[in-house]
């Protein structure tokens, strides 16, 4: 079977609306032949190139089958980070908003990463990746990490202790774990300005 036929066969097994990397197809043949096959599928409308080296199968809208959507810019950014082994997480202001530390949602979708600063655009949707130091990316997918990034984006002088306490409650974690997390954050050098707030909170939890 030709590279083009193999690529077409594999593409038909890919989920619609989910971005994927061309690198997963290079085992089918030479890089040039695989790239040609993917370009042909794009011309036929079976694929959409959403970013250099990334594609998505169009997905018809349920209520408007004649209208197709492709992968979101968020999904493309996540696929890019996974492909290259980069860490990625929502920016501090987004974490602060989700925790109730601030009431205004960020206008722009921004991620922090140890990868290079760059942007992803799919249609009218724009996502920005900001390079951050390893210390800003600690505790990924952990409550203490979300709290740390949220606090780093705010001024402790304009954040009442009660607001900080409510943020901990939003995490729905046991009091003992909450006190441990407060202790971790107190010892985080980047949160030195928050130490007094966190110490008061730890005693109240």
Automatic annotation (TrEMBL):
Name of this protein: Type IV toxin-antitoxin system AbiEi family antitoxin domain-containing protein
A Pfam family found in this protein is: DUF6088
The family database entries (InterPro entries) matched by this protein are listed as: DUF6088
Q: Which organism is it from?
A: Salmonella enterica subsp. enterica serovar Ouagadougou
